Amino acid sequence: MRRVWVLFIVVSLIFLFNGCKFKINQSYNIRDNSVLGSGVTTINGSIHIGSNCRVNGKCMTVNGVISVDDNSVVRNLQTVNGGISVGRNCEVRGSLESVNGSVDCESGTLVRKKIRTVNGDVNLDSTTVHRDLITYNGNIGIQRNSRVLGDIRIKSGKGDKSRIHHITIKLEKGSVVEGDILVDNDPTLDVTVFVSNDSKVKGMIRNAKTVEK
What we know:
By secondary structure, the protein is mainly beta. It contains one helix and 29 strands. The chain has a ten-stranded parallel sheet, with helices on one face. The protein folds into two domains: 1-131; 139-157 and 165-213, no CATH class. It has one helix spanning 2-16; strands spanning 21-24, 28-30, 35-36, 40-43, 47-49, 54-55, 59-62, 66-68, 73-74, 77-80, 84-86, 91-92, 96-99, 103-105, 110-111, 115-118, 122-125, 128-129, 133-135, 140-143, 147-148, 152-154, 165-171, 176-177, 181-183, 189-195, 200-201, 205-206, 209-212.
């Protein structure tokens, strides 16, 4: 975790000196219908992006959340100690990445690259993810005709190896994973994949239990 903090601060300073909007101990609010040519970085503050916005740079925060309202276009969103929520009919032209926070996408959202969490759940509602969905310790809910065009990967962490990590992956209401569901070969990972009758995993499922319902 210390490494993550140091890396985040270094990257934030780089963004600061390259014209990125930067705040410490303050939140950043982007009003509806705004267009930003650069990204936003905060430490100890949240980032809110209004509806019908276009943000052409990376948004990053430590100790805060990132929320995006409906019909907005953003690039990469990253948080440490905070979640990410994306509203309806949004386009993420990069990735969504969170350490110690969940990622939630509402209906009609398109994620052009990957979703990645460490210690955070992922919930997709009528959402398409073009690349992989990766988590180390989070449950995954894929609902209402959502599609993951890459793989779902459950990775082995370097933390506590003395307890079992129970993780669930649920595909419901016509959702599809085009690739594989791949779980690292780690005895501390106990992963169960629930697939409804109208949903499908087109690839293989490795190192996980499968329950069809």
